[in-house]
């Protein structure tokens, strides 16, 4: 966990400011030029000046054989999702992804073995959730069709934690009902078009909280690729139908022949990859 301490010393409240600034300038750029400030047409190869150049970048290939087993998931080693039902949620079509807001009272509490800030608690607030197609992280070298990110922030320390969940196509082509509640109400058009739904989504029922998980220290996967992000990649993939994958592609500009909205794999280097298992 030496890397975690080093990371926490290098980031702070400034990270939130960076993110908010990036978000604002992104919207401004869209309003002016009707196109995003970055895209995936070169797979992120042209993001050089937009991204920090560090050795703690994301995404990575999550390999079980590479990971250190950090113990049995129990009351003290499991993260706790304190999610509530989310009503009248806002969905934004950013072109590169579909994003929905996290609501007022949805939190993630991390194991103190992973995150124990000196100021505040181990609790982080859910800011938003969005998707990448195909998956950004690989599992044993293989990509899943879709990956969802739940982005959490600890306002007291400026730290971020992202929960990553893979999706695979269901053998019987059964659609994922929670995904439908996002995709069926997402606005068309790429220019940060926003819709406030009159729906309620059952967040606690969506996420497999009893899943084993991997943990490592990485970065945002979009510019400015800020480091110091605590990643939690769930072992258990969720399922969806291939029609839902097509629906996502058509909603975003990925349906227009773009290569996907996944950043290419980054080097793991000497980083520790932890596997927390039952
Ligand atoms: Zn993401």
Keywords:
single chain; binds zinc ion; Carbonic Anhydrase II; 13-stranded mixed β-sheet; 278 residues; alpha+beta; 5 helices; disordered N terminus; 30% strand; globular; two-stranded parallel ribbon
Write a concise synopsis of the structure shown.
The chain has 278 residues and is an alpha+beta fold. It is built from five helices and 17 strands.
Class based on secondary structure composition and strand pairing:
alpha+beta
End-to-end C-alpha gap: 21 Å
Helix content: 10-25%
Strand content: 25-35%
> What's the helix count?
5
Largest sheet: 13 strands, mixed
What's the structural domain tally? 1
* Spans where pLDDT lies below 50 across 5 or more residues: 1-36
Mean pLDDT across the residues is: 84
Q: What is the H-and-E element order?
A: HHEEEEEEEEEEEHEEHEEEHE
Please characterize this protein's 3D structure.
The structure is a single chain. This protein has helices at 2-10, 13-33, 177-183, 203-206, 242-251; strands at residues 61-62, 68-72, 80-82, 86-87, 90-93, 98-101, 107-109, 123-132, 138-139, 146-154, 159-169, 193-196, 200-201, 213-219, 227-234, 238-240, 274-277. The chain has 278 residues and is an alpha+beta fold. It has a single domain, classed as Carbonic Anhydrase II (Roll). The strands form 3 sheets. Strands 2, 3, 5, 6, 7, 8, 10, 11, 12, 14, 15, 16 and 17 form a 13-stranded mixed beta sheet that branches. The chain has a two-stranded parallel sheet with strand order 1-9. The chain has a two-stranded antiparallel ribbon with strand order 4-13. The structure holds zinc ion.
